């Protein structure tokens, strides 16, 4: 899988360093989003000398280049996720199990019309992340609530 990342990095004019490739490999192998600290812990298993500031810098560069996405969590922390879907889409983020799922619906046409008409503004870009509980976590919460009643 690391070979696929080399071309993406070169397209962004970023060096395909061993640590950068390892960060991408770590994120791509996880079904959930990770914090920079979690990436750092996993990276330390592969490299003896790895600093947390370097992990932060690499994650930021990769996110700015669109190779990974930032999850802006309701807890106000940034998390990172490797999304394999290259088409325009948005994400549903489960705040319980940390799973990230693709949403194919984009309501930007309606939002742009509202901004253009009511606010006389213009949309330049957008990011949409919806937070909630996935089906499994929602079912677990329902079961837990029923048991408490």
What keyword list fits this structure?
149 residues, alpha+beta, three-stranded mixed β-sheet, globular
DSSP strand count: 5
Distance between the termini: 48 Å
- What is the helix/strand order? HHHHEEEEHEH
Uncertain residue ranges: none
User: Percent of residues in helical segments?
Assistant: 40-55%
Task: Estimate what percentage of residues fall within beta strands.
Answer: 5-15%
Mean pLDDT: 88
What does the main sheet amount to? Answer: 3 strands, mixed
If strands are numbered along the chain, what order do they take across the biggest sheet? 4-3-5
Give the number of helices.
6
Radius of gyration: 18 Å
Estimate the global geometry from the Cα principal axes: globular
Structural class: alpha+beta
Which secondary structure elements does this structure contain, and how are they paired or packed?
Blueprint: H1 2-11, H2 18-28, H3 36-44, H4 52-64, E1 69-72, E2 78-81, E3 90-94, E4 100-103, H5 108-118, E5 129-132, H6 135-148
Parallel strand pairs: 3-5
Antiparallel strand pairs: 1-2, 3-4
Could you explain how this protein is built, in words?
With 149 residues, the chain is an alpha+beta fold. Helices cover 46% and strands 14% of the residues. The protein is built from 6 helices and 5 strands. Strands 4-3-5 form a 3-stranded mixed beta sheet, with no helix packed on it. Strands 1-2 form a two-stranded antiparallel sheet. Strand 1 (69-72) and strand 2 (78-81) form a beta hairpin. It is globular. The mean pLDDT is 88.
Question: What is the structure about, briefly put?
Answer:
It contains 6 helices and 5 strands. The protein has 149 residues and is of the alpha+beta class.
């Amino acid at each position: 899988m690391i070979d696929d990342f080399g071309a993406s990095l070169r397209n962004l004019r970023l060096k395909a360093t061993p640590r950068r490739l390892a960060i991408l490999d770590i994120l791509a192998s996880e079904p959930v989003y990770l914090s920079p600290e979690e990436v750092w812990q996993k990276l330390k298993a592969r490299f003896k000398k790895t600093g947390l500031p370097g992990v932060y810098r690499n994650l930021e560069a990769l996110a700015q280049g669109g190779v990974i996405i930032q999850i802006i969590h309701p807890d106000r922390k940034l998390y990172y996720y490797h999304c394999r879907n290259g088409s325009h889409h948005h994400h549903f983020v489960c705040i319980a199990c940390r799973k990230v799922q693709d949403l194919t619906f984009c309501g930007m046409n309606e939002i742009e019309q509202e901004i253009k008409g009511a606010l006389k503004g213009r949309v330049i870009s957008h990011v949409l992340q919806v937070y909630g509980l996935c089906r499994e976590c929602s079912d677990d919460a329902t079961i837990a609530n029923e048991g408490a009643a």
